[in-house]
Amino acid sequence: MKTILLTGFAPFGADTANPSWEALTLLPDQAEGVRLVRRRLPVAYDRVAGLLAQAVEEVRPDAVLCVGQAGGRTGLTPELAALNWKDAALPDNDGVQYGGVPICPEGPAAYFATVPVKEMVAAIWAAGVPAALSCSAGTYVCNCTLYHLLRLLEARYPTVEGGFLHVPYACGQVLCRPGVPSLPLSMIAEGIQAAALTIARGLTSEERRP
Ligand code: PCA
Q1: Atom 2 of ligand 1 has which residue's CA nearest to it?
Q2: Which residues of 148-172 are buried (b: 16+ CB within 10 A; e: fewer)?
Q3: Annotated catalytic, 142?
């Protein structure tokens, strides 16, 4: 049985909930013969790498899909790549702020996600949930998390696929943000599950075997 490790984040900024984690709590432990293991990550630049490494070592997944909130987006967006850059006006939940520095001075400028991003977009739409490919995960903690994940997998677990999925606000978060797009949490959860199962199917399909 294939295992997909899914991570979501704690709330950050002005929000008291993060749909990336809230949606993961709605998923089953197993779907279509695929084990879905969930972990919650802190919104903390300097702690995500260690916690991710620990989770991958414990769970030994076949693929890792990190999920985060991207307020303002209209659909679920698999990320194409992670940039070696930290730059945000908002400090993280540990009070740490970076204003334009590399995540890893000795690392490459970027890593491409190794999960099948275009198939994920198609599968999310097929589940009835809006989706689009994103070419930038930003330069805050989510991008940093994807960068660390892909660096870890390349170095220590080269057969394990890695990727990131940004999700919009859940409906309850936009009551005080008129005009800002959102989706019901249940739809966000369905989209995440469709993406995860697509990754799992790709791991066993003939054309992706070496
Ligand atoms: N979104 C932020 C960090 C945590 C989250 O859920 C981001 O896009 O960087």
Answers
A1: 142
A2: bbbbbbeeebeebbbbbbbbbbbee
A3: yes
